[in-house]
Amino acid sequence: MNAPILELKHVTRTFAVRRGLLEGQALLRAVDDASLSLFAGESLGLVGESGCGKSTLGRMAVGLLSPSAGEVRLRGTPLHTAHGRRNRADVVPGRLQMVFQDPFSSLNPRLPVGVSVGEPLAARGVSGPQRREAVAEMLRLVGLSPEHGRRFPHEFSGGQRQRIAVARALITRPDVVVCDEPVSALDASVQAQVLNLLRDVQERFGPAYLFISHDLAVVGFMCPRILVMYLGRLVEESPREALFETPAHPYTQALLASMPVREPGKRVPPPVLSGELPSPLQPPSGCAFHPRCPRAMDICRREAPPWSELAEGRRVRCHLYR
Ligand SMILES: Nc1ncnc2c1ncn2[C@@H]1O[C@H](COP(=O)(O)OP(=O)(O)O)[C@@H](O)[C@H]1O
Ligand code: SF4
Ligand SMILES: [Mg+2]
Predict the structure, then answer these.
(1) Are 94 and 122 in contact (CB under 8 A)?
(2) In whole angstroms, what is the distance from residue 164 CA to residue 100 CA?
(3) In a mutational test of the pocket of ligand 2, which residue from 249, 253, 287 has the highest number of ligand atoms less than 8 Å from its CB?
(4) Residue-wise pLDDT tens digits, 241-254
(5) Where are the beta strands (DSSP E) in 197-256?
(6) Residue 127: exposed, middle, or buried by beta-carbon count in 10 A (0-12, 13-18, 19+)?
(7) Alpha-carbon dihedral of residues 94, 87, 6, 13, nearest 10 degrees?
(8) Taking a C-beta distance cutoff of 8 angstroms, is the pair 156, 139 a contact?
(9) Which residues surround ligand 3, an ion (CB under 5 A)?
(10) CA 220 to CA 224: how far, in whole Å?
């Protein structure tokens, strides 16, 4: 196999948070020892409940946030120095981009959207006329017209704003785009349009996607390879078909069972995912899923399960497979 374009190696990120007046600070482990490889042009999915650490992982993958431990490498070069500083400027600009759930976060409300779309090129010193040409081309590509570039973000619908954010992310022809819940804020009718757009531009420009969503259906639509995350830890990695047909981790099984059934007449399975998501400030001992797991055993309370390899490209972190 080719070398991965982006690698996360045992990446951990903690945040110091205030607990209360008397208790002082505590360390919240948002991402715990995550390793993954992203290959050129592929779509890798990352799915898990809200608060499990997906955005923190995504922000580290594009270098917006430095890991507390471990390393992120783009084409073999670490994004950060050992001191957590961003590495040489020439490693990153334009190579890594991000599309956020809320496109307002990457579009300045006071600037015409054309300026925002061209900004990553301006940052790389591309001249005005060349930039305007590239912006017009990108706007057309995402289904808008060059004239739209003179308007302001509030003049567009949510779906159009997300198209503009995609144009901005793709204008530097990045190697990797982290799409963080790109359709979660959109109406169901608009979601499919934006997902199809993301697929189209990937075919044209070939960026690899790390595609993040809490919605397994959305991840399944976009990604042939999927990672499942629970409370800061990756717990299963699998090709899409195998994951949907024979989910290995009890958490993945619960996620699948709680997906809405789309075929009429098919019986709705009982709710499997009972109980609250525990706080990452006080994660359960051993396997963090044990308080909610229907198959928990004694060892699950004591020991965190290591990875078990089930097949080529399929691994799971659960004591049932040891
Ligand atoms: N800057 C921060 N400071 C403190 N806690 C944070 C910060 N960013 C994220 N967290 C916490 O880290 C955990 C994971 O958050 P996040 O990565 O946003 O999860 P997700 O994207 O899966 O919803 C949450 O408990 C969240 O409150
Ligand atoms: S390790 Fe134990 S508690 Fe965790 S998912 Fe597997 S069976 Fe359930
Ligand atoms: Mg998030």
Answers:
(1) no
(2) 12
(3) 287
(4) 999 999 999 999 99
(5) 208-213, 225-230, 233-239
(6) exposed
(7) -120
(8) no
(9) 55
(10) 7
- Best residue among 230, 290, 322 to mutate for probing ligand 2's pocket (most ligand atoms within 8 Å of CB) is 290
Q: What is the residue whose two structure tokens read 């590239």? A: 134
Which residue, among 25, 4, 1, has the nearest Cα to 175 in the 3D structure? 4
- CA–CA separation, 114 vs 194, rounded Å? 19
The tokens describing 193, both together, are 């349009």
The CATH number of the structural domain formed by 6-95+174-260+272-321 is 3.40.50.300
pTM exceeding the 0.85 threshold for the entire prediction:
yes
Domain ranges of the chain: 6-95+174-260+272-321
CA distance 318 to 14: 24
> What are 80-99's pLDDT values in tens digits?
876 666 665 555 667 999 99
